[in-house]
Specification:
Elements lengths: L1 H32 L4 H8 L67 E7 L6 E9 L6 H11 L4 E4 L6 E5 L2 E2 L8 E6 L18 E7 L3 H10 L1
Parallel strand pairs: 1-7
Antiparallel strand pairs: 1-2, 3-4, 4-5, 6-7
Length: 227
């Protein structure tokens, strides 16, 4: 009976030893596997009576918080004007303003002109008063007469050409209407030329006069020169 009881106690002691070992292993594993939390360490530090609890101050983050994933509002950009910075004034351009090119003075071509008039007999009177006529290149006394008559719509009759040019009638007034020596003559600057109207070339500033006469003006002028 004593041997049976002794064996039973030995078995019970072994069981208790095994249970105790397993409890120590579990307690050791949990304590060595996880480090003590900061809250536990802080609590352990302040567990001493009379000491103030000092919580760590979080350092400010230098990176601006990004907008939340659900927000659609774009990040607001910093404007220099909102920050109070002065608006920069644009400086004037350093390049010189181009000056307009000076147009060359317009030189009007010199217009060469003469004065022409047509005078009839006592009945016709002045047919064309003295007027300025533009002188063309190589203009002759008969050529200017034709152009002036056309301008004033006057009838005229001229025969021959060159040195043989002869004016028979102007505006319905013909040679011999006032006698055997009557007819049309011309003067240039007050002088009756000794060449025909078709070959006499005019110069700028000349005064050409066509007139009707009842006498031989050339003979009369010769008499006056001799006397």
């Amino acid at each position: 009976m004593v041997k049976k009881i002794g064996g039973w106690w030995i078995a019970l002691l072994l069981l208790l030893v095994l249970i105790g070992c397993s409890s120590e292993n579990e307690a050791g594993g949990s304590s060595s596997g996880s480090p003590p939390s900061s809250a536990a360490s802080v609590q352990a530090e302040v567990s001493t009576p009379g000491e103030a609890i000092v919580e760590p101050t979080p350092e400010p983050s230098s990176i601006a918080p990004s907008p939340s994933a659900g927000s659609t509002e774009p990040a607001k950009e910093t404007d220099a004007n909102d920050a109070g910075a002065p608006t920069p004034t644009p400086s004037p351009s350093s390049s010189p303003t181009p000056k307009p090119s000076k147009e060359p003075d317009t030189v009007e071509p010199a217009v060469d002109s003469i004065t022409v008039s047509i005078e009839g007999n006592a009945e016709w009177g002045s047919i064309v008063a003295a007027e300025s006529v533009v002188l063309g290149k190589g203009d002759t006394a008969s050529g200017v007469l034709k152009r002036t008559a056309k301008k004033h719509k006057l009838s005229y009759e001229i025969r021959g050409s060159g040195a043989l040019t002869y004016v028979e009638g102007i505006d319905g007034l013909y040679e011999f209407d006032d006698g055997p020596t009557s007819g049309w003559k011309f003067r240039v600057n007050g002088i009756i030329p000794d060449i025909g109207a078709g070959t006499y070339k005019l110069k700028p500033g000349d005064r050409l006069e066509w007139f009707y006469t009842s006498k031989d003006e050339a003979a009369e002028q010769g008499k006056e020169s001799a006397s």
